[in-house]
Amino acid sequence: MIEKDLLVIGAGPAGSTAAKFAAKKGLDTLVIEKRQEIGTPIRCAEGVGKNVEEFVEIENDFISKDVEGAKIFSPNQELFEMAERAAGDEVGYILERKKFDQYLVEKAIEEGAEVKLRTRAKDIERDGDSIITKAIRNGKKIKIKSKIVIAADGVESRIGRLTGIIDSLSLKDIESCAQYLVTGIEDIDLDYTHFYLGKEIAPGGYAWIFPKGPESANVGLGVQPTRASKKPKEYLDEFMTQLGLEDGKIIEEMFGGVPVAEPLETAIDDNIMLVGDAARQADPITGGGIINGIKAGKIAAEAAKRSKENENYSKDTLKYYEEKRKQEIALKNKRNYQLKELFQSLGDEKYNSIVSSLKGTDFEKISVASLVSELIEENPEIAEEIKEII
Ligand SMILES: Cc1cc2nc3c(=O)[nH]c(=O)nc-3n(C[C@H](O)[C@H](O)[C@H](O)COP(=O)(O)OP(=O)(O)OC[C@H]3O[C@@H](n4cnc5c(N)ncnc54)[C@H](O)[C@@H]3O)c2cc1C
What we know:
Layout: E1 2-9, H1 13-24, E2 29-32, E3 47-49, E4 63-66, E5 69-73, E6 79-83, E7 92-95, H2 97-110, E8 114-116, E9 119-127, E10 130-137, E11 140-151, H3 158-162, E12 174-183, E13 192-196, E14 206-211, E15 217-223, H4 232-242, E16 249-259, E17 268-269, E18 272-274, H5 290-310, H6 319-346, H7 348-358, H8 368-378, H9 383-389
Flavin-adenine dinucleotide (FAD) is lined by residues 9-15, 32-35, 43-48, 90, 120-121, 152-154, 158, 177, 179, 220, 256, 258, 276-278, 282, 287-290, 293.
């Protein structure tokens, strides 16, 4: 039996960050990851806001593009632009996500964490004040005894479901996504991230172009399954044709789901914390989850350290994580969830009129606040509802 202070399950951004900070604080930390290589396959459009620099030292190695801002297209193809710093947690840098995830793992190892690849957590059980995690490593059963488990095992989170902390996601709280990495793009301004709205393009979601290089980009979309009448790939193929990219070279295809759900009431149990997509911490409007996962990992590491100092691993001691993640992640996500529900009820004509009324506004001055005030101006009937949300 392997014995550790802390077991982190999953080496995505949330898990690696938790491991890095926990190891740095002196916890004997093991990370297990079911894949044989960190970061592949990539399920991401790879956009992050520059506020990622608050948590990660930026290295050119894992940045494929530094973008100037966002171009947002209404359903009737009117455009408005937002400066990068106003456009949210997904606009700023386009990552090389595989290298980024690998970098985060290296940082955890530098701080003293141990990492085992090809190791899949299968089951967990309590043993006194510890947890025993049963895993399969290279086809063999192993057991890991730890005082704390941080479950960073992504959107499907087996650990979250086994512990009863999470349930299955309802279909309206999932964005079903398809994305191509396309080269040979000539007529699109690849200094900007592009977003496209409209129920014909991506019902209940949006389409995106996230530039990767001078002529290449991640072109993708997410749809809400309850509103879509076709598969995401079919919407994406139509979108490619609409952009005139049907002859562009597709180098990679990717499909995946993003949780766009309300924040969990509880993301902990005795000895256990859920972080990142496992705890449904992606932004419900954009589906971006990298920065929130990193934030949550850092907070969970601090909570683990406090538990160790108090030699108490109960839910009560882990409340530090609950309170901090509520302040730093869940409060905003709760508001964005309500706004998402409201936006989805508006329909294409409303989007058209909002975008049209923003035309001519100074690019540097448009912010989420100005969008919301435009929304209220254009839709006085929902003003009260919006004021309650924000
Ligand atoms: C199409 C698409 C586009 C996206 N675009 C963006 C974007 O542009 N910007 C952004 O911020 N976010 C984006 N996201 C969301 C982002 O990818 C996730 O929010 C982020 O990866 C969450 O990080 P995480 O560490 O919580 O989970 P993950 O990155 O999913 O990592 C979980 C890890 O756990 C491992 N694992 C799972 N089960 C087990 C097990 N039983 N045992 C051991 N290991 C296990 C997995 O192999 C994986 O490595 C996108 C998502 C999708 C699907």
